[in-house]
Amino acid sequence: MATRTCTLQIGIVSLKVNRPIHLVSSLSTMNVSQTIETEEDLLPCLHVKLYHPQQSSNSLYGLIPLGKRSKHPAEDPLRLGRDGQACTVALLDTRVSRKQLAIQAYYTPRSRDMLFRIQNLSQRAQLSVNSSALDYLEVVDLPDKALIRFGQYEMLIIRESGEAKASFEVEFEVLTVPPSRETCTCEPSVTPVSDTE
Fold it and tell me: Where would I find the FHA domain in this sequence (predicted)?
């Protein structure tokens, strides 16, 4: 079997080899992390305002980082419940389901805004999103301002737009009055779903 001699000229040095040489140009590899860093300058943020009628006498929010923004990867659902290992956000309350709800970020082909949807993960209780009641595993899009209710908990979630694609921020705070008073939605926290809806 005949071998071919290839001559490679590098500067003033010539190399002779008995097999082809494959060169990889350092210019062909791009550093994509630079574009990601510039996109991450302004992160979308979910402002979550919590209320429970017994929050002053119980440390329900002891595991939640209150008053500061925490970064969350957009591809992972943000889960809330009492199980600190299965959920991103844990409530210290045995009446809360192990996994109560999940918030998932997503995009549509027609919009550059990061949008969110919420899913009920509890098999025991309905989840109320504004005036819609969700049963187990049912999902609905989150509007820019949404009142979420389960059990005696009320959460007002406000979406702040951003330009980042890969992550978003969440900021929790505690309200002293129920947000349903502010939003004038005073129906019960769990509304049964009728057959006509």
Answer: 78-139
How many angstroms separate the CA atoms of 160 and 187, rounded?
A: 27
What integer best gives the mean pLDDT of the chain? 81
Are the beta carbons of 168 and 158 closer than 8 angstroms?
Answer: no
Nearest-CA neighbor of 54 among 128, 127, 151, 125? 151
Distance CA(181)–CA(162), nearest Å, equals 29
CA distances from 101 to 117, 135, 139 (A): 11, 11, 10
pLDDT band with cut points at 50, 70 and 90 for residue 4 = low
Q: Where are the domains of the chain?
A: 43-183
Residue 93, both tokens: 């309350």
Tell me the pairing of strands 13-17 and 6-10.
Answer: antiparallel
> Three-state SS for 13?
strand
Query: What's the CATH number for 43-183?
Result: 2.60.200.20
Between residues 93 and 197, which one has the greater pLDDT?
93
**Confidence band for 9, pLDDT divided at 50, 70 and 90:** low
For 91, phi then psi, to 5°, come to -100, 135
Instruction: pLDDT band for 57, please (50, 70, 90 cuts).
Output: confident
